[in-house]
Design brief:
There is one protein chain. The protein is an all-alpha fold and 186 residues long. It has 2 domains: 5-88, Rna Polymerase Sigma Factor, Chain: A (Orthogonal Bundle); 99-185, Arc Repressor Mutant, subunit A, CATH 1.10.10.10. It is 74% helix and 0% strand. It contains 10 helices and no strands. Helix 1 (5-14) crosses helix 2, helix 3 (42-58) packs across helix 4 (69-88) and helix 4 packs across helix 9 (150-157). The N and C termini lie far apart (55 Å). The model has no long low-confidence stretch (mean pLDDT 83).
Length: 186
């Protein structure tokens, strides 16, 4: 029987070996998340995730088990990524979305899907999503690539539900408007 994340947290408080199971469950997810919301190279993203797990481990005793562990882990990862960006004193310029990631975001909006005909169109969509302002790109990644629900996104980015919904809606509208410009003009 597989233990829940919260059960593993309780075990890890008593036995550090149990923490390894949480690392195994979340390491790849959090790495992809860092790469999707930032411009960091693979090595830098791995360093951020390693720091995140150290922070999580050191904070296990203050973990609020009313939250989902995954939400808490994503929140810590988001904050660590933003801190790393600030340390570099640069804003994210391009993100590391793969074509499959772009396709997932596009599938969320049938109006955009109708305009895509070629691989070049998919590449244009990737550039459009890369160019989104950070606040929209972040919630789009959380919702459509990380499959987080609105409540989890609220907890991760620490914004009210209405703000989360508005950011997602505006992000979709920006993508659609830019896609229409790209595909109609070209």
């Amino acid at each position: 029987m597989e233990l829940t994340d919260n059960e593993l947290v309780e075990l890890a408080k008593k036995n550090p070996e149990s923490f390894g199971e949480l690392v195994a469950r979340y390491q790849d997810r959090l790495f992809r998340y860092v790469r999707r919301i930032s411009y960091f190279r693979e090595e830098d993203a791995q360093d951020i995730v390693q720091e995140v797990f150290i922070k999580i481990y050191l904070s296990l005793n203050i973990f609020d088990d009313d939250l989902k562990f995954s939400t808490w882990a994503y929140q810590i990862t988001r904050n660590a990524t933003i801190d790393a960006i600030r340390k570099k004193q640069a804003r994210p310029q391009t993100i590391c979305l793969e074509e499959s990631d772009v396709a997932k975001i596009i599938q969320s909006d049938t109006d955009i899907q109708l305009h895509l005909e070629t691989q070049d169109d998919l590449h244009k969509m990737q550039q459009i999503i890369d160019g989104l302002p950070y606040k929209y790109r972040e919630v789009m990644v959380l919702r459509f690539l990380e499959d987080k629900n609105y409540e989890e996104i609220m907890d991760i980015i620490q914004k009210p539900k209405g703000t989360v919904a508005a950011l997602i809606s505006r992000g979709r509208k920006l993508i659609l408007a830019q896609a229409q410009d790209q595909f109609i003009l070209n």
